[in-house]
Amino acid sequence: MDSLPATVASALVEADSAGSETDWPARWQVLTAVSVELQSLLVTDPGPDLVALIEQIVTQLADGVAGSRRHRVELAELAHRVLSTHARACAETAPDPVRLADWLLDLQLQHPDAPDVSLAAYADALDDEGLAHYRERAVTLFEPLPVIGFGETGRYDRARWALLRVMEELAEYSEDVDLQLLVLSKDLSSGWHYLQVATVLRDNGRSEEALDWVERGLRAVGGRGAALRLIDLAVEEHLRRGSPQRAVEVCREAFFARPNLDVYLKIRALVVHTDDWPPLRAELVNHLVQDGTRLAIEVYRRIVEVELARRGVEEQELVVEWLHQLRGLQPDAFADYLEHIKSRHVADRQLLDELSKRGL
């Protein structure tokens, strides 16, 4: 038993040096034989000494992964197999749970590449005391990490990556929503990250916090990226909470921040059958006129198409007025656009007559 670490060390030495490929199959056979021997010892000689021995060999293999270029994958898989043997040995031996927690955490932090630790495999050995210690240490190390702000490039150095992996596994194993949120909120580099946080909060009944994160996300994205999905989540939550007016307000604010046909359609669907729609529609369109940017005018034109499709008398009269305004905003491109409208609605004599009355 005592000779196994030396055997591993000998098999790993200069594994990537020139000419080592010729004897790698023999070295690999030695390493896999050690793994088999450890499994046999688990049956014949379990106890604290075996646990300590396996820990030494896992560490050696993890060092081998970090130092190898050609055989990282094989060594990582072998380290994982030996770690599984370690978990079984701990289940039978019942080591000090706090010491075990420290060893598992140190293994991962000092060897970011391998192996992955499954806390479920150590559930009995860690028990509540060990898991609490593991959680406390991990959180203490993770909390000071800087948040990756919106638009920033992720700073995933090896230390941060190792801590992130530890926290993700811990959050999943413990089903701790606060831990999951702590992990997610460390990376806010895009609107989709804000959406992830808000979705987790919504799914766990924390509606007020979810809406707060939606608002933060919308401020960050400025109408781009994940804006529509953030708006969807906010609308769903406000409607579920019996606050349709707040749902409309979220959409209205988003439309003013960055005009968008999809947002216009959301507002329309929410209030089209109420008395609030005509003045609100006028407010939205007037905002596009006042904005006057290329984006705003494009949205203006698409809204014209949407309202024309309704084919009501009121909509047609309104659209004709909008087209009249559009002529002043886009005098150079308006003639072609008007011909496009007329050709698409050539059978609508009422619309064509109304356009003719207005000199269009």
From TrEMBL:
InterPro entries, A to Z: TPR-like_helical_dom_sf (IPR011990)
Protein name: Tetratricopeptide repeat-containing protein
Annotated source species: Lentzea alba
